[in-house]
Amino acid sequence: MSTTVEAQRAWFEQAIDQAQGDLPGQDLEWLQQTRAHARRAIGTLPVPNRKSEEWRYTAIEGLLKNSFQTPAGEADAARVLEAGGWLEPDYPAYRVMIVNGRCIADASQTAGLPEGATVGSLRTALATDPELLGTWFGQAAAHTDHLFTALNTALINDGIFLHLEPGVVLDRPVEVVYLSLGQEQAPLTQPRNLVVLENGASATLVERFIGPGDALYFHNGVTELALRDGAVLKHYRVQDESRNAYHLSSLYLTQDRNSLYQGTTLAFGGAWARTDYQAVFKEEGARCELGGLYTVGDRQLTDFHLDVRHNVPDCSSREQFKGILYGKGRGVFDGRILVEKQAQHSDAHLSNDNLLLTENGEIDTKPQLEIYADDVKCSHGTTVGQIDPQQMFYLRSRGIDADAARRMLCLGFAGEVIDAIEVPELREYASQRLVATLNQSIQAAE
Length: 446
Known about the structure:
Elements: H1 3-17, H2 29-44, H3 61-64, H4 77-83, E1 94-99, E2 102-103, E3 117-121, H5 122-128, H6 130-136, H7 147-154, E4 160-164, E5 174-179, E6 188-189, E7 192-197, E8 202-210, E9 218-227, E10 232-240, E11 246-255, E12 260-267, E13 272-281, E14 287-296, E15 301-310, E16 316-325, E17 330-339, E18 347-356, E19 362-371, E20 377-385, H8 389-396, H9 402-418, H10 424-445
Parallel strand pairs: 1-5, 4-7, 5-8, 6-9, 7-9, 8-10, 9-11, 10-12, 11-13, 12-14, 13-15, 14-16, 15-17, 16-18, 17-19, 18-20
Antiparallel strand pairs: 1-2, 3-4
Helix pairs in contact: 2-7, 8-9, 9-10
């Protein structure tokens, strides 16, 4: 075993050892077994490196050079709220505040939930409703395959628990704000989320990931999403982390008969940011629609990995992701659709389009289709290009200056993804963040 691998193993072991004392649910046998299984997996799973196809374009050496510490206890709610600006945009929503990986009840707003709806802290639910959690926990998240998911599982502490009983429809979105505050020792925050929508339930979930200034931290979040028969989840995610932050989100989705999942992820921040989606159809008639927009500038790497599995007949999936790269930013898109032999009448389409605003931007894009059925409608494709000179000429000839024309064309390119956001305040917020990013890209080009 090489010294490098030994050092990487030691990094993971240290992360586990320093966080053991504050874990909830020590008396829950199923939870302790889950944690122990994950710890054993960490000792046997291969450490991600460039020889691994899933990590071919995304090095973790920079991440492992840093020493992160799991924060002890809850952050002070008064300090969090006084910091200001974290709850913008403000709109009618049930809101959960997670600071450095822990839910802050005094900063959350969940009053008025309908009967049959649970929204709140996973840590609290482990004490109040452990049997329900035990039924669903770990059903989708593959901690035996993914080293960072295993790390999160070994240290299950807090996060959100969203559960809707059959037929419950939420009248407003659930917003979860993940705030990572820098400390003397760079924080390791590992929220663990469980979202379960029973038969015919419906909800809108908004997640925002933020961090102040140039704070250094590592967000390693895992979310399990289970949609039962006819359930509908609209899921919006905005990653706007500190430009020194490391961000990894792993999402595991399972869908039953005639369920609908619509997920849109916007990635603006972070020094190193990766989002992994694994979606599995369990019964016929399910639909999964994934969309994303990433902007990547100097000293940034943003990576999207999709693994959508058609295991049963008559399901459909749509994946549309767009990237805007400027400066020396680097993007990675690795999307895979697997259609098994028994998954006849599958309808699956995957696209990735990228716009390079400077010559120094880099994108590694790899859309993949694996089809073993013979009666399907499937397609995949990717494009990489620069702003069309003829379009620029058209706008300039009508008196629009070069910077404004550039912004207009980029907004048009990204508009299809942003326009899919059905929460007006969030859609406006996303547009403003995109404009701010485009202004940075113009400065980088000068």
